[in-house]
Amino acid sequence: AAKASGRGQLQLYAPPLSAAAQQRSMAVQQLGLALRRGELELYYQPQVRATDTQLLGFEALLRWRHPDQGIIAPATFITVAEETGLIVPIGEWVLRAACEQAAQWPGDLRIAVNLSAAQLRSGRIVEAVADALVRSGLPPHRLELEVTESVVVDERSVEVLLQLKALGAELSLDDFGTGYSSLASLSRLPVSRLKIDRSFITALDTGEEQARALVAAIVQLAKSLRLITVAEGVETARQQAAVQELECEVIQGYLHGRPEPAEAWTPWLDELRASAR
Ligand code: C2E
Ligand code: MG
Ligand code: MG
Ligand code: MG
């Protein structure tokens, strides 16, 4: 009806969307199709042992290869996926693809997969993880599931985490230190790893004693709870030296590799296979 009454009126009833809102509504429509069209991809970022930088595994990070816009990072579409519920089918695809990929890797290399709170609340996550493990044949201990502190506020989600752990998967607390209930989370969640948020690692480069003291305290806390610590976002040799000295166990960051398609890591994996022989 608005259309029939002419341009001026149309504006009255349906004001033009702001650029941001327009982009968002397009994203919602296109994201629904992206999965079916095979536009979603996983990139893999290495995690290495801090003491000798030996490869331990990778974190799977979602990318959207948009037909017009090229590669889109998850920050711009994960929230939309969570709000619309699309994160459930997308997350199931991520789990399957990541486990299938990791099953091809040599030795005991691990794969870390991010789970959002919406997935944990979906009622489908335990089955989805079990399904991905069975289909791929990946030994459960090689799958690591990353959750953030936000899940601790939901009692049911803590229950779900216990079920995921019972499947044999490892649980990691991602972005540790950025949430509002860090200490409470640690004691209530059945996690075995703690990923120290990049913001703490970045601060190590300023050489400030305070930044160092903070990371040292987190590592000590983790040690006393028998949790493995992962330093996220290590970009410089100086940051690496600092986290090594503080006895953080695992390092992930641009220094050792950015997230890349699986094929990019083939030479490194071939080298590992060769040296294992
Ligand atoms: P995250 O799980 O904390 O992943 C680490 C993010 O830090 C990644 O961003 C990675 O590219 C970036 N990063 C790693 N090392 C460095 C570094 O040295 N310097 C800098 N500047 N950045 C570094 P990315 O890939 O854009 O992912 C952002 C977030 O999106 C992830 O944070 C995670 O919360 C979410 N996400 C990614 N993939 C998935 C997924 O499959 N499912 C769900 N639910 N969330 C995902
Ligand atoms: Mg993560
Ligand atoms: Mg993180
Ligand atoms: Mg994050």
Automatic annotation (TrEMBL):
Keywords: Membrane, Transmembrane, Transmembrane helix. Coiled coil: none annotated. Residues 24-273 form the EAL domain. This is EAL domain-containing protein.
